[in-house]
Amino acid sequence: MKFYKILEMWYLNNKRDLPWRNSSNPYFIWLSEIILQQTRIQQGLDYYKVFIEHYPTVQDLANASEDEVLKDWQGLGYYSRARNLHFSAQYICNELNGVFPSTYKELLKLKGVGDYTASAIASICFNEKTAVVDGNVYRVLSRYFNINTPINSPKGIKYFKELAQELIKDANPKDYNQAIMDFGSMVCKPANPTCDTCVLADGCIAKAKNLINDLPVKEKKLKVKNKFFNFIVIDNGDFTVIEKRTGNGIWKNLYQFPLIETDKPVDDQALIEDPFFKNNYTKNPELTLYNPEPWVHKLTHQHLHTHFWILNTNSIDNFETTPWSNIDDFAVPKLIHNFLEEYNSK
Questions:
Q1: Which of 8, 33, 53, 95 is catalytic?
Q2: Percent of the chain surpassing pLDDT 90
Q3: Which residues does the UniProt record annotate as the domain HhH-GPD (predicted)?
Q4: d(CA 15, CA 1)
Q5: Domain span at residue 87?
Q6: What are 81-111's pLDDT values in tens digits?
Q7: Three-class DSSP category at 94
């Protein structure tokens, strides 16, 4: 039996019951695919339900403010996804008269939509024969066909896409694409795949050669940078100070406490001597370290070693203040959210 037929039959009997699979509405599929980028299904499911409730149509999402969208996204990470989602919703409504793109090529024009997401929407909603290639697909194909070309190399990306496109040409694209993704997630898992009961086992070259644990191959990642963040948390009992991040770095347009970034861990005296601190805060400040051990927040290419410093002062004329009672209204990074939960509970 052909590769695609085996997977389609497996899928009919084993597919997961997920809310977006009950619809061919491209808005729902798009929303689910963006949320599930870099996110486990179980975590993403709750966010999907919130977004569908708050923004049941692409018009509702377009009409929301970016702050509202970021607040609902809070804790999911990779916030550029939320900003792109909002931007693209406005593009669909303002430039496309609210009509969702219906082809792979048109879908690629949406900000934040790449080959994988465009392929998923085009195949699931419009039955276009465009193969999805994500981590699950890389794993299934590399093991079944014993391919050791690195999946994150230009050569590997091109080769696997061409192979995936060849395999889908006679398949039902909607079922086949979802089948191979589910199969990679549920059977051909990164660790402890269920090879003994795998429906593809008879043709799997990696299984025959005992190479399952060696595939897929990845090139070494970029070196992770260490950064040292010092958040200055002003607390005079009633008010604090938070600010919106700007620029194109991490957490764009999210809110945070005033930040002093250093090239190594520092003590309170070093912070007080910092030009930013001298220019904005009182003399003889009462500065207390909240967390003696840094909180390490790990991002893809950087680790943030973070300290929160509590500053008790009434001299905050240089800043726009925010009542502590309103702090939960702002979209903040997960790191700040975790601090606020712990700090406000004491």
A1: 33
A2: 79
A3: 35-186
A4: 20
A5: 3-214
A6: 999 999 999 999 999 999 999 999 999 999 9
A7: helix
Measure Cα distances from 313 to 81, 83, 128, 260, 284 in Å.
Answer: 37, 35, 62, 18, 10
| Structural domain includes residue 185 | yes
If one counts the domains in the chain, the total is 2
Distances (CA, A) of 162 to 31, 58, 126, 142, 159: 26, 32, 21, 13, 5
Q: Are 289 and 268 in contact (CB under 8 A)?
A: yes
- Is 219 contained in some domain? no
Q: Kindly indicate the confidence band of residue 11, based on its pLDDT and cuts at 50, 70 and 90.
A: very high
pLDDT of residue 342: 93
Q: Which of the listed residues 167, 185, 214 is the one where a domain comes to its end?
A: 214
| Average pLDDT score over the chain | 93
Say whether pLDDT at 22 is over 70. Answer: yes
The answer to whether residues 53 and 158 belong to one domain is yes
Does the pLDDT of residue 318 top 80, yes or no? no
* Token digits of residue 316: 């905050």
Please say if 243 is a catalytic residue: no
pTM for this model (two decimals): 0.82
Q: Does residue 33 sit in helix, strand or coil?
A: helix
- C-alpha torsion 31→32→33→34, nearest 10: 50
